[in-house]
């Protein structure tokens, strides 16, 4: 049995992780760290899913986290491939330096 | 006044995060991260109320430990100047989150998270970091390039984070009491009906003289539910009360829900992973420039065969 107080604790932790990830994504200039911050936001969402699933006695919450993991893995693979490509072209990881990408 | 306390905690947290984001010495940053974690702990205390909200006191203590660990590591990750350390602190966040999942009785997801995140995704990040790591000045290998030292618009970003935090903590404190609180077990029991072999084995272990198979009700179910009790009736009128221990465990339930409720999504997830693999291989491949002679050296055998 999970009380509402415990649930709101879990939801607040998830919100804190999401907020920290969002701030990090906006603040950091390093492309790789920016993608790490999106992974941090995924963590926050996963906690919310599982806590709500526990509270509502529904296992779909955990299944959703499996899909979140899948999307995170796919995103990491594609994003890091792009980062490697960009780094090969301009020898920097600064997100601002890619403002003038064109053909 | 009590109404504003959570927002004050949010404000302290955001201010500490803002100061910690600015370039400073490690000790100064550490002090403000401690302040931020303390504010987060205060906010958690305000929202939860007391440890009696948890089913046992030890669970509450572990929740506090794991959540503060996760928040501290996340703050450290966002404010650290070196990307490799950021990635390592993210591993700590993942481990603390896995601890929270264990508290929520989601064992399968806890271990899957550690294996997939800490074991696979973070290793990929580390590989790319190692591939592209460089010092700003070759003479001073310990300095970081400017884009790692200087934040971009920290005030605006922390403002957005503060608003998000205020919104969520206000919502969490305000409502939600209308949600169900009674434990329902019909999902577990109806899954057990589908897991025929396990059902039979556990029933025969409880009572080896039970006449299998049990009777099927008018609504197509096998297990009767009355109040808190679940029981089955055999063809010769024998009844057997099912104890909670033979309910399917969390991992079984997640697997059942995955293949029974979301089959199309499961297939789509597989396709997404496959396309990501192809995409990564195609994007990151390197075109090799070769002149005629080199081509002959590499593909020489083929060419000769064509000529003859």
List the helices and strands and how they pair.
The complex is a heterodimer of chains A (about 100) and B (about 300).
Chain A: H1 4-27, H2 31-56, H3 60-90
Chain B: H1 5-21, H2 26-48, H3 57-79, H4 83-103, H5 107-132, H6 146-149, H7 154-174, H8 186-194, H9 196-206, E1 224-226, E2 229-233, E3 239-242, H10 250-261, H11 263-284, H12 292-307
Antiparallel strand pairs in B: 1-2, 2-3
Helix pairs in contact in B: 1-2, 1-7, 2-3, 3-4, 4-5
Structural summary, described in words:
- The complex is a heterodimer of chains A (103) and B (308).
- With 103 residues, chain A is mostly helical.
- Chain A has one domain: Orthogonal Bundle (Helix Hairpins), CATH 1.10.287.
- Chain A has three helices and no strands.
- Chain B is mainly alpha-helical and 308 residues long.
- Chain B folds into three domains: 173 residues, Up-down Bundle (Four Helix Bundle (Hemerythrin (Met), subunit A)); 61 residues, no CATH class; 37 residues.
- Chain B contains twelve helices and three strands.
- Chain B has a three-stranded antiparallel β-sheet with strand order 1-2-3, with no helix packed on it.
- The longest helix of chain B has 26 residues.
- The model of chain B has no long low-confidence stretch (mean pLDDT 84).
- Chains A and B meet through helix 1, helix 2 and helix 3 of A and helix 1, helix 2, helix 3, helix 4 and helix 5 of B.
Name the descriptors.
heterodimer, A: 103 residues, mainly alpha, Helix Hairpins, 79% helix, B: 308 residues, Four Helix Bundle (Hemerythrin (Met), subunit A), 4% strand, flat
């Amino acid at each position: 049995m999970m009380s509402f107080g415990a649930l709101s604790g879990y939801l607040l932790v998830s919100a804190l992780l999401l907020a920290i990830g969002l701030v990090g994504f906006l603040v950091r200039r390093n492309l790789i760290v920016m993608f790490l911050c999106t992974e941090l936001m995924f963590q926050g969402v996963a906690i919310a899913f599982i806590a709500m699933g526990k509270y509502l006695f529904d296992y779909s919450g955990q299944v959703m986290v499996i899909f979140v993991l899948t999307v995170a893995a796919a995103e990491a693979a594609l994003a890091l491939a792009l980062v490697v490509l960009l780094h090969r072209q301009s020898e920097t990881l600064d997100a601002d330096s890619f403002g003038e990408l064109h053909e | 006044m009590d109404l504003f306390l959570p927002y004050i905690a949010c404000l302290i947290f955001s201010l500490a995060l803002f100061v910690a984001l600015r370039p400073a010495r490690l000790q100064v940053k550490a002090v403000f991260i401690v302040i931020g974690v303390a504010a987060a702990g205060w906010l958690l205390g305000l929202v939860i109320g007391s440890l009696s909200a948890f089913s046992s006191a030890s669970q509450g203590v572990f929740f506090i430990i794991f959540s503060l660990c996760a928040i501290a590591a996340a703050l450290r990750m966002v404010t650290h100047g070196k990307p490799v350390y950021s990635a390592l602190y993210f591993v700590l966040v993942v481990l603390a989150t896995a601890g929270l999942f264990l508290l929520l009785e989601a064992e399968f997801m806890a271990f899957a998270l550690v294996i997939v995140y800490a074991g696979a995704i973070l290793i990929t990040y580390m590989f790319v970091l190692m591939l592209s790591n460089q010092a700003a000045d070759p003479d001073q290998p310990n300095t970081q390039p400017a884009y790692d030292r200087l934040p971009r618009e920290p005030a605006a970003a922390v403002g957005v984070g503060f608003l998000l935090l205020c919104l969520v903590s206000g919502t969490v404190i305000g409502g939600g009491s209308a949600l169900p609180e009674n434990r329902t077990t019909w999902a577990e029991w109806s899954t057990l009906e589908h897991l025929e072999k396990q059902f039979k084995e556990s029933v025969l272990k409880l009572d080896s003289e039970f006449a299998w198979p049990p009777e099927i009700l008018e609504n197509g179910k096998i297990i009767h539910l009355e109040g808190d009790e679940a029981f089955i009736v055999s063809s010769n009128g024998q009844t057997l009360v099912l104890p909670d221990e033979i309910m399917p465990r969390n991992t079984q339930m997640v697997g059942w829900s995955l293949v029974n409720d979301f089959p199309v999504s499961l297939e789509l997830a597989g396709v997404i992973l496959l396309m990501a693999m192809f995409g990564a291989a195609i994007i990151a491949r390197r075109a090799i420039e070769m002149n005629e002679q080199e081509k002959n050296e590499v593909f020489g055998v083929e060419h000769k065969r064509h000529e003859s």
